[in-house]
């Protein structure tokens, strides 16, 4: 009886052993398939990360280009300003020079030309030179200033 039980157990064991091996193979195959799927899932993540990095680099390049363009525009503006200042420098110098001149207006010899400013330097703490400190010249000055205001 025991021998029969042992034989039965051996038969059962022998039938289960290949089944266990097949299960192990199937389990390993499943693990391999899962690993492949995970790799396939991971590859898009890596690709997405690379794409994001490329997009960020592209955005950084665009920002750098915009900054360079703004700098070029500012340089052009500065160059234009410097050209204007050099172009009209003599006028500003002349204004400064005219501020130091006597403020009296002088009648020109030619009747067709406008009266012009006296070319002499004024006395300290005064607007007029020695020649034009007389009252008649002050009246002339006021007259010409009045004409300028009317125009």
From TrEMBL:
Top-level division of the source organism's lineage = Eukaryota
Q: Where is the composition biased (Basic and acidic residues)?
A: 58-80
**Which region ranges are annotated with the description Disordered?**
34-91
What this protein is called in its record is: Hsp20-like chaperones superfamily protein
**Source organism of this protein record:** Anaeramoeba flamelloides
